[in-house]
Amino acid sequence: MTHISRIASVLARRHPEIEVRPGSTGTAAYAHDAGTRPRVAHPDAPGPTVAFPATVEQVQDVVRVAASLGVAVVPRGAGTGLSGGASADVGQLVVSTDRLDRVLEVSPADELVVVEAGVVNADLDAHLAPHGLFYAPDPASYETSTIGGNVATNAGGLRCAKYGVTRESVLALDVVLADGSVLHTGHRSVKGVTGLDLTSLFVGSEGTLGIVVRATLRVRPRPVARRSLTAFFPDTLRGAHALVALAATPVRPAVVEFLDGPTLRGIDAHSGSDLSARGGSLVLVELDGYGIDEQTRDLTAALAAAGGTVRVESPEDAAHLWHLRRHGRGVGRGEPRWFVGEDVAVPRSVLPDVFAYLPELERRYGVEASAVAHAADGNLHPLLSRPVRADDAPDVVPPDLAEAATALVRFAVAHGGTVSGEHGIGTVKRDWARLELDDVALRAQHAVTAALDPHALLNPGKALPVLEPRTPLDGPVPRAAPSTHPDPVPTTV
Amino acid sequence: MTHISRIASVLARRHPEIEVRPGSTGTAAYAHDAGTRPRVAHPDAPGPTVAFPATVEQVQDVVRVAASLGVAVVPRGAGTGLSGGASADVGQLVVSTDRLDRVLEVSPADELVVVEAGVVNADLDAHLAPHGLFYAPDPASYETSTIGGNVATNAGGLRCAKYGVTRESVLALDVVLADGSVLHTGHRSVKGVTGLDLTSLFVGSEGTLGIVVRATLRVRPRPVARRSLTAFFPDTLRGAHALVALAATPVRPAVVEFLDGPTLRGIDAHSGSDLSARGGSLVLVELDGYGIDEQTRDLTAALAAAGGTVRVESPEDAAHLWHLRRHGRGVGRGEPRWFVGEDVAVPRSVLPDVFAYLPELERRYGVEASAVAHAADGNLHPLLSRPVRADDAPDVVPPDLAEAATALVRFAVAHGGTVSGEHGIGTVKRDWARLELDDVALRAQHAVTAALDPHALLNPGKALPVLEPRTPLDGPVPRAAPSTHPDPVPTTV
């Protein structure tokens, strides 16, 4: 009898108040996140055991039991991740934060909230609206993803152009560590330098250092004004160069999104819109705050000087455009296709080079390539695809497409960028992460991880490439080998 | 022959190109930082050995030699710290970053600079001005302190009200680790989530994890407009309550400083100004950016509603007021006094409680208390003092003053605040840090430190209270006992 098969019964006996679903076909959904769901359903595939603690103490109890049985723990929010960070083997215990869904405090005077990890991003924002406040980080999954998951991945979104990523909104965390103790990091004050900045260390750690159970988050007053502008350019490259020109203005929009020509055509095909009739690429901007007319004037001048056709959109048209940007990339219609969605980030000046490289990728690898970008951050979401062919293996990304994707990641890293701007490494990007992390960096990463989770109990094998045992940093123990979970390529973006 | 007495000769033999000053009375200044200089000079006291590497490779060489001899390394920028973080025993090797003073790159398009650690904050800003850019973090020491020191302490300043502390301006670091290897963290892109956020971990680590040798920093366009406002209030508490009222407006000034009544009187006595004739406390604000008239209107309304007498200051008057704020607190005139300068931070709503508590401290401990605050951040710099008495020990803070200071720190921590908003823990605040870090937090802090510096080579005993060996986190080694360096109380603020 393996330990995982015992964990449900041990938990039921010792902690009957905690809801636990033993591994079965009914928990199969917990084997994957949104990025690693197999293309072909396997109706008989069993899932992992899943625990649903409803209090911090219950999370501690679950972790202690798992540790005592040597069962690895996979923390999970809404499972909206795109890199496999919340995927779990049948031999692992998923700890869901679904029941930790309370907003514990809203303090307008201190511009902070205290929430449990399972609170949904959009629900928090709705909770704040009556107070005239908002929570800035808005990942694409904001309608369903949880704060705990946002913290674990250091989620970005559109508004981080002005307001920063999740890290910039986290003041303090409560984290259940691998030994079941609760670590309090940070404070309720904005500033604080007592000890190492463990708050930032946990943000983006993908569940490998501890389970975030509570967060004290910085919130902000809703801006006095918001305004959306479009600038259409004759082609993709003219638009990409305009993004660089924007750096020369002092305007700092809340959102700067860039949609290339193929993306506009895909949206039109999917949504019946006419964006591609208006131009060959689109810079879509949201301004906010004081001096909205002055901001509009300076931004319009810069975009027009760069060759754009600029228009201030009505609130209704703006809402429609933002909906199209968030929801319609033209994926999923027509012939069956393989898709690989990427998440590289580059210095902003490199954006035109990336967009010039996409057609080269298409020629060299026989794929189609398009990209949207959170342009102010240099964060691109390229989409590479090709039709499914009869001789393709069913659940493995075709080698030609994988090679094209790797080439693009190499391009970004070689230009001072990164493998992942906001989605995280999970299991899907472990090999790519090795392109960015040299031996010294990888040893340091593993050393810090092992310091807080010496037995690799928490989300083992995620977030970092394997460290060869022959090159440990002076002292610490390398983490265990990665999970054997198969990782099909992400098919959503 | 001890190892420290050999290190100068070993370095001279192996690396003659590196400037090294053997420990002598000529290096006595390196035994202290600005916060731990003894009140009474000891002309015969020898200082530590000091190395002045001029390249990253030379830093690596110095660290390797020190490691081979088992000599602890104390990284040092300009020595302007106020918590003893750069203080060194005669048995330790100071590694100065003085010769690492090059600005390596300015990229306006990517809004970043690459600098060596020894570049002075103000020199960087001057370097950026012709490009229309500025570097936001502006600690009080900005005219002399270095970027490396700013990074090591996560320095704050006045402008972090709007632009964040040093952490928010650091994109990437090159760090020499305890084994002499160079760790590259971060990237040139704004976003990036590959692996743990080691960049943030090194920011504020006070030289205990590695020696920062290069930094890639985010810079910003100079604002289109700047405007300074004063709001004088009848007394300290009315002013402090106005700070809370500001949270209800959507205006986010670049700087919000608060000067209480005793501070205004001290400045007047020191500088011949007439601030206290204008009111009993002062909220001094700098607005910047777009919509400066709208911002002025909304802020003026809020401050006036809170009982303030508001005035837009001319650029000349504003410059004089900011000079008074930065340079004149009335310290150092008149009878000899003991001073303790603190650096607590609290949630902004607690600011009135802190200012109400200061007179209570005065009564209970027989001290005088005043405070300025970086008010938008809730970061206070209280100044506690009393006259020197004949029976005071010469270099030890009097117990009554120390108790008053500890009471204030306890007050801040009990209200969700922190021991140190921006100065760091160093040696001076190690005991106070224990008020904030519980056993779990302290074990986690030491575990992470030991993971990167397993032999406690780098700045041992700084930044963290000692961890009792009986309570290690599962696995890691606690750091060595703190240095035996005596730490007089800071006398500057």
From TrEMBL, chains A, B:
Origin organism of this chain? Luteimicrobium subarcticum
Q: What is this protein called?
A: Glycolate oxidase
Q: Which InterPro entries match?
A: FAD-bd_oxidored_4_C (IPR004113), FAD-bd_PCMH (IPR016166), FAD-bd_PCMH-like_sf (IPR036318), FAD-bd_PCMH_sub2 (IPR016169), FAD-linked_Oxase-like_C (IPR016164), FAD-linked_OxidoTrans_Type4 (IPR051914), Oxid_FAD_bind_N (IPR006094), Vanillyl_alc_oxidase_C-sub2 (IPR016171)
Extract the GO molecular function terms from the UniProt entry.
Answer: FAD binding; oxidoreductase activity
Cofactor(s) listed in the protein's UniProt record: FAD
Q: What range(s) does the FAD-binding PCMH-type domain occupy? A: 43-222
Q: Which UniProt keywords apply?
A: FAD, Flavoprotein, Oxidoreductase
**Key word Flavoprotein present:** yes
Map out region (Disordered) in residue numbers: 467-493
Pfam families, per this entry?
A: FAD-oxidase_C (PF02913), FAD_binding_4 (PF01565)
Q: Which PANTHER family match?
A: GLYCOLATE OXIDASE SUBUNIT GLCD
